[in-house]
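Let us work through a complete example step by step.
Step 1: write down the sequence.
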Amino acid sequence: MVMAMPMHWRKRWLRGFNQAELLAKPVARRIGVPLCQNLRRKRYTRAQASLSETQRRQNPVNTFAVCKPEQIRGKRVLLIDDVFTTGATLRAAAGALKEAGAGHVSVLTLARVDRREAVAELPLSREVTPKAAGVLS
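Step 2: predict the structure and record it as tokens.
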């Protein structure tokens, strides 16, 4: 089965959509498996982008719950999210799925943030250099 990383109902209401769900729907359709919504956020958390790395690792702890665990028991789950930064949110969600009995959890993200590249290293001019453009030399 395919699952999208859930958003807290308040964030979804404010944004109007769940970007992970928009990515997960065509994937589920393409591979011919159901898109399930058994994973829920049980508490509101601060946005990961505004936190330090240490705070990012603690923020999603005890955030996820699985509804109807009998539906995922022993199943292979593909968990889809938009961006992978530290992996803390994905680890917490995958942990909740495994605790509920999922046989295997794989993760698919659209993008990965490379935190090694410091913003201070970018050129101050508007000229695009190979390094600023992300081109490897």
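Step 3: interpret the result. The chain is about 30% helix and 20% strand.
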